[in-house]
């Protein structure tokens, strides 16, 4: 799947804002959205927010929308399908109004959406627009952070936990409520806590802690031996600064960035230093290090120089203590290791996307009878209900069944993935 970097300089108005206010009610109604649809919903709300209650409809360039969500800007079939899903998804809220009276309401997430002449036009119902724009109770959803998520359940859990970051806990939710928030209510498979914990809770928690600006820990409440309720303890992620770094200002084009890379500094660490301290300050410390001759660890030395503001003197060269250099090197090595892990995940994701694209080409080349036979044959090879349920829902794009899908087509057309590499 092609990936295109967004030029933030070409975005105007609300789209330049990194965060979007997401009302409590809206967060609680989006459980059944897929990852793509959830991201799309956030970007549409971001685009419409400033005129949410004053304009009857909103519009955005379709290619810009596709790029912000993170998929091929020419894939209008996927965009149409996702917009259709938002229009067909029912939003329901149950909350106290300003007078303390209970208010219940229901609406589709989008009252309409259309694509015409490369523009996406859409609207919210007046009642839902008021809820989405309510400034009293909201969470800030960072559209840069949401790009880090690769699963809808992970992003759904992040959205539902983030608004409680100041209180430190979500409070207790019944498992029925949690299933609804995750969009798996109505599934007999997830009625089992064992399955819910293994397939939804643990993976989603791991992704939130790895991919966002908060860290969460689940706690469970039991009645007898059965788990009945769940809550999440929440704290800010100490790596927040790393998640907020973006290259919309062209950091990678700066001479000092290129000089850092030549010294073996990782992309993320170089951008972090420049973002936090400014290009001139970092350039000064880089020049200072180069004037010290050979150093054992350039990463460790630069880390200490930037942190402690090393400056040359007429007679004395300031040298950090061995403990300081060691601690700085260890911190930098951890960041470097994290970068390597991120690069590895990106490479794996890109390879998976390449193979899915090949599968899509092969499927489109088959006639209807062959397609039906392929699906039935593959479905018969799956040995558990969850895999079959995922394949029914997502077909040949099922991420859960990726390995099995690739193996199936490799057996059907030997060497197909190598030939198209």
- CATH architecture descriptor text of the largest domain: Orthogonal Bundle
**What's the end-to-end separation, in Å?**
14 Å
Q: In angstroms, what is the radius of gyration?
A: 25 Å
Beta-strand segment tally = 10
Pfam families: Rep3_C, Rep3_N
Family: Belongs to the initiator RepB protein family.
InterPro entries: Initiator_Rep_WH1 (IPR000525), WH-like_DNA-bd_sf (IPR036388), WH_DNA-bd_sf (IPR036390)
GO biological process, one term: DNA replication initiation
Plain-language structure description:
With 421 residues, the protein is α+β, with helices and mostly antiparallel strands. The chain folds into four domains: 143 residues, Arc Repressor Mutant, subunit A, CATH 1.10.10; 97 residues, Arc Repressor Mutant, subunit A; 96 residues, no CATH class; 79 residues, no CATH class. Helix content is 51%, strand content 14%. It contains 18 helices and ten strands. The strands form four sheets. The chain has a three-stranded antiparallel sheet with strand order 2-6-5. Helix 6 crosses helix 8, helix 10 packs parallel to helix 12 and helix 14 packs across helix 17. The longest helix has 44 residues.
């Amino acid at each position: 799947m092609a990936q295109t970097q967004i030029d933030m300089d070409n975005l105007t108005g609300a789209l330049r804002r990194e965060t979007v206010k997401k009302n409590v009610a809206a967060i609680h109604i989006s459980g059944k959205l897929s990852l793509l649809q959830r991201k799309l919903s956030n970007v549409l709300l971001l685009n419409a927010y400033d005129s949410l209650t004053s304009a009857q409809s909103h519009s955005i360039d379709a290619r810009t929308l596709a790029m912000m969500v993170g998929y091929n800007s020419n894939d209008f079939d996927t965009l149409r399908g996702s917009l259709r899903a938002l229009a067909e998804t029912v939003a329901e809220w149950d909350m106290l109004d300003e007078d303390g009276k209970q208010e219940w309401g229901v609406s589709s997430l989008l009252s309409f959406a259309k694509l015409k002449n490369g523009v996406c036009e859409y609207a919210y119902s007046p009642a839902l627009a008021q809820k989405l724009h309510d400034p009293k109770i909201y969470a800030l959803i960072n559209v840069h952070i949401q790009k880090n998520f690769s699963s809808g359940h992970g992003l759904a859990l992040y959205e539902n936990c983030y608004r409680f970051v100041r209180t430190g806990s979500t409070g207790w939710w019944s498992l029925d409520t949690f299933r609804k928030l995750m969009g798996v209510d109505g599934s007999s498979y997830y009625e089992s806590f064992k399955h819910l914990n293994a397939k939804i809770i643990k993976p989603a928690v791991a992704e939130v802690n790895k991919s966002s600006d908060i860290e969460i820990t689940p706690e469970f409440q039991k009645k007898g031996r059965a788990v009945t309720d769940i809550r999440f303890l929440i704290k800010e992620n100490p790596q927040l600064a790393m998640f907020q770094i973006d290259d919309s200002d062209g950091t990678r084009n700066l001479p000092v960035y290129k000089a850092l890379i030549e010294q073996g500094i990782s992309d993320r660490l170089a951008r972090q230093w420049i973002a936090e301290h400014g290009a001139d300050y970092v350039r000064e410390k880089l020049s200072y290090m180069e004037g010290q001759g050979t150093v054992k660890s350039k990463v460790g030395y630069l880390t200490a120089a930037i942190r402690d503001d090393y400056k040359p003197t007429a007679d004395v060269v300031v040298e950090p203590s061995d403990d300081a250099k060691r601690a700085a090197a260890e911190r930098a090595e951890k960041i470097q290791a994290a970068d390597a892990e991120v690069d590895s995940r990106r490479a794996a994701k890109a390879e998976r996307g390449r193979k899915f694209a090949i599968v899509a080409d092969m499927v489109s080349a088959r006639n209807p009878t062959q397609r039906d036979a392929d699906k039935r044959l593959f479905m018969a090879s799956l040995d558990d209900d969850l895999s079959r349920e995922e394949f029914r829902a997502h077909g040949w794009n099922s991420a859960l069944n990726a390995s099995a899908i690739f193996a199936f087509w490799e057996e059907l057309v030997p060497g197909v993935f190598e030939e198209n590499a």
